[in-house]
Inverse folding.
């Protein structure tokens, strides 16, 4: 086919307008969220002492940290869905959850504790944490990849990793309301491992699925 | 050169707001630049430069299908070159070479390529044959027979809307097939 013929054909299709990537991503995540929530309700459920726990600042901090991961990751993902985008000026956003955790760890150190440090770090739900977060993040990861595929990411593996971060952040937000381990040391250890697993899966899937 | 790029931005803005003539003019204007960069990339990778038109057509398809990711407040050239560079690297990789494409290839190409010849490539045409019948017929009619959407609708006794849908789906599946070949 001659290039001029192709150009004429593309021009004929100019009236077609694709939906913005942000909208497609939002719709995909909204469609996947009920699946993750259903997994949560069926398998875990909210912890029984929720009302008391809410008065514990370290319980609340868990949500702050997980949302401080998920929300910037959504913004970075959308940014990377543009072909000319680079991580420069955006990557620091991912330091926010790490900084919050660090503040939490230091605060906890300064307060008198009933349990020794290693006990708080190891907790009682580590295995569940490392299974539940990745499992609940899978529907969200699929949705994030579908949404970002609508864009034109020129760094598919990095963009996939960010999709992993955002889905792990959202899944961890759900999980945090079940888990009775509130120590920032526990969160920094086991939530991070779970998030790293999902991020690696996202990078792997992204490098295949996000090429355009 | 800078002026040319500013002109592209203006044309793309008009194109998005529905000006088909501006879109046509833009695609015609960027094609020689893309062609020069594709040739340079192929030459550097030790590949025959006569395959450059396949790459040009692939880039044009990607530009078309991903134009919603361009921010109308940003200049058009960096967006275009990012798409082109990505497609060029993919394409060279598929042809078995791993090469680094310098973004300057495109900037140089703007300055150095006056020739606006028309050229033909075989990959798009080959993949066209493997499309579903409706998409293939509509694309053939518009691309090869130069028919309008209206004429194409009349020819196949379908609505203009159906022609538009088949046209867009055809272009999208063509791009997917080229990527997976």
């Amino acid at each position: 086919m001659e290039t001029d013929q192709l150009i004429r054909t593309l021009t004929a299709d100019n009236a077609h307008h694709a939906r913005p990537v942000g909208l497609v991503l939002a719709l995909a995540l909204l469609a996947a969220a009920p699946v993750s929530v259903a997994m949560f309700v069926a398998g875990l459920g909210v912890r029984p002492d929720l009302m008391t726990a809410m008065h514990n600042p370290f319980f609340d901090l868990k949500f702050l940290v997980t949302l401080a991961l998920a929300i910037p990751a959504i913004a970075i993902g959308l940014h990377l869905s543009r072909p000319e985008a680079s991580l420069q000026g955006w990557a620091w956003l991912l330091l926010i959850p790490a900084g919050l955790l660090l503040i939490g760890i230091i605060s906890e150190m300064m307060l008198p504790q009933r349990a020794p440090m290693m006990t708080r770090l190891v907790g009682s739900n580590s295995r569940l944490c490392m299974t539940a977060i990745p499992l609940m993040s899978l529907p969200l990861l699929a949705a994030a990849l579908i949404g970002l595929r609508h864009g034109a990411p020129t760094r598919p593996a990095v963009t996939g990793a960010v999709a992993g971060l955002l889905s792990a952040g959202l899944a961890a937000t759900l999980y945090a309301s079940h888990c009775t381990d509130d120590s920032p040391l526990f969160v920094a250890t086991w939530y991070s491992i779970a998030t790293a697993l999902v991020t690696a899966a996202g990078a792997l899937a992204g490098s295949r699925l996000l090429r355009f | 050169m800078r002026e040319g790029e500013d002109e592209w931005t203006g044309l793309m803005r008009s194109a998005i707001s529905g000006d088909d003539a501006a879109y046509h003019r833009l695609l015609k204007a960027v094609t020689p630049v893309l062609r020069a960069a594709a040739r340079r990339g192929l030459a550097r990778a030790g590949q025959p430069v006569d395959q450059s038109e396949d790459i040009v057509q692939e880039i044009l398809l990607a530009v078309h299908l991903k134009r919603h990711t361009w921010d109308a407040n940003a200049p058009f050239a960096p967006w275009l070159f990012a798409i082109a560079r990505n497609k060029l690297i993919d394409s060279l990789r598929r042809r078995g070479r791993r090469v680094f494409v310098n973004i300057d290839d495109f900037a140089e190409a703007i300055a150095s390529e006056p020739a606006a010849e028309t050229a033909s490539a075989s990959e798009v045409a080959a993949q066209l044959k493997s499309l579903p019948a409706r998409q293939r017929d509509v694309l053939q009619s518009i691309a090869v027979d130069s028919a309008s959407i209206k004429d194409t609708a009349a020819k196949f006794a379908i609505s203009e809307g159906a022609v538009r849908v088949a046209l867009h789906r055809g272009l999208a599946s063509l791009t997917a097939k080229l990527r997976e070949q």
